[in-house]
């Protein structure tokens, strides 16, 4: 459950992330592909090497979706309904992969924010990412 | 048997040589207790864990964080034989401490975050992969003697 302080913190952080969505998103993806190679199996149709066009645009898309979710935390299910359907019926990504990606977002934020990525901030973002992933995985079965 | 590349071995030795155990151990454990509050179940005797500030200032948490890091150092020093090195520790965690091994993964994730925050840009995707591989081997070894 997200407290109101946490919701504010989340909006604050994701607002800061929006202008650098491409950098954050592509870094998180690259970390995931490097640390958990099995995640690359979903991208055999794209060039996801470091700094590639596809990696950057895909990373940007994801972070922008997260920012959108951050602005509408109380209505995640409705806001994310189209994305939820897309992930369930078209992408069909094994749900464990959401956790791997979320972890890599956290690592990316930790590297960039250093000490500012306090335990409280870490907890709030982790909870938000979990809630977001849960909605994305909702229609899987 | 785990096969380490030269890069992986060098990376792990380097990270742990430069790490201040007295700082990252306590930080990782405190973070775990804050981000995953159910892990507090194992620390009922540690006194005030009421909120993040209390956890971060708790001396027992700090002391235990250092203990955990020193335990991890055993694996760093015996990278080619982590399974055997951790046999006794594994028995301790299962039969005496009764820790759900899924929680090892949570602490490992928190440690990764702490190291990442410290190293910043130096924690490249390749370094992260090496670190996570090492941590995963340690976690797996720790969970082996559970029956």
Plain-language structure description:
The complex is a heterodimer of chains A (141) and B (147). Chain A has 141 residues and is an all-alpha fold. Chain A is 71% helix and 0% strand. In chain A, helix 2 crosses helix 3 and helix 6 packs antiparallel against helix 7. The two termini of chain A are 24 Å apart. Chain B is 70% helix and 0% strand. Chain B has eight helices and no strands. The relative contact order of chain B is 0.17. The interface between A and B is medium-sized, with 23 and 23 residues.
Structure summarized in a few sentences:
The complex is a heterodimer of chains A (141) and B (147). By secondary structure, chain A is mostly helical.
Can you count the helices of chain A? 7
Distance separating the two termini of chain B: 21 Å
Rg over C-alpha atoms of chain A, rounded to the nearest angstrom: 14 Å
Q: Quickly give the structural class of chain B.
A: mainly alpha
- Spatial extent as radius of gyration of chain B: 15 Å
Which regions of chain A contain 5 or more consecutive residues with pLDDT less than 50?
none
Helix and strand run of chain A? HHHHHHH
Percent of residues in β-strands of chain A: under 5%
**Helix content class of chain B:** over 70%
Q: How confident is the prediction overall: mean pLDDT of chain A? A: 93
| Helix content class of chain A | over 70%
Strand content of chain B: under 5%
List the uncertain runs of chain B: none
Structural class of chain A: mainly alpha
Q: What topology does this entry show?
A:
The complex is a heterodimer of chains A (141) and B (147).
Chain A: H1 4-17, H2 21-35, H3 53-71, H4 76-79, H5 81-91, H6 96-113, H7 119-137
Helix pairs in contact in A: 1-3, 1-7, 2-3, 2-6, 6-7
Chain B: H1 6-18, H2 21-35, H3 52-57, H4 59-77, H5 82-85, H6 87-96, H7 102-119, H8 125-142
Helix pairs in contact in B: 1-8, 2-4, 2-7, 7-8
């Amino acid at each position: 459950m997200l407290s109101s302080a946490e919701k504010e913190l989340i909006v604050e952080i994701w607002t800061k992330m929006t202008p650098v969505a491409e950098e954050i998103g592509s870094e998180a993806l690259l970390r995931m592909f490097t640390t958990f190679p099995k995640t690359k199996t979903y991208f055999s149709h794209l060039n996801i090497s470091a700094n590639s066009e596809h990696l950057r645009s895909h990373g940007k898309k994801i972070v922008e979706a997260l920012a959108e979710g951050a602005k509408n935390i109380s209505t995640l299910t409705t806001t994310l309904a189209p994305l939820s359907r897309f992930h369930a019926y078209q992408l069909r990504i094994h749900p464990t992969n959401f956790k791997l990606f979320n972890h890599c977002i956290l690592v990316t934020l930790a590297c960039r924010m250093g000490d500012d990525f306090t335990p409280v901030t870490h907890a709030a973002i982790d909870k938000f990412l979990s809630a977001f992933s849960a909605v994305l995985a909702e229609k899987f079965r | 048997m785990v096969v380490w590349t030269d890069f992986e071995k060098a990376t792990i030795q380097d990270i742990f040589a430069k790490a201040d155990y007295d700082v990252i151990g306590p930080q990782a454990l405190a973070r775990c207790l804050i981000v995953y509050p159910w892990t507090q179940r194992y620390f009922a005797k540690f006194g005030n864990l009421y909120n993040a500030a209390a956890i971060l200032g708790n001396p027992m948490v700090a002391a235990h964080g250092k203990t955990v890091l020193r335990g991890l150092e055993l694996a760093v020093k015996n990278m080619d034989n982590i399974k055997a090195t951790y046999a006794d520790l594994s028995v301790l965690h299962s039969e005496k401490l009764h820790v759900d091994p899924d929680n090892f993964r949570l602490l490992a994730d928190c440690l990764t975050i702490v190291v990442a925050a410290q190293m910043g840009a130096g924690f490249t995707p390749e370094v992260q992969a090496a670190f996570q591989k090492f941590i995963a081997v340690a976690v797996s070894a720790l969970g082996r003697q559970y029956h």
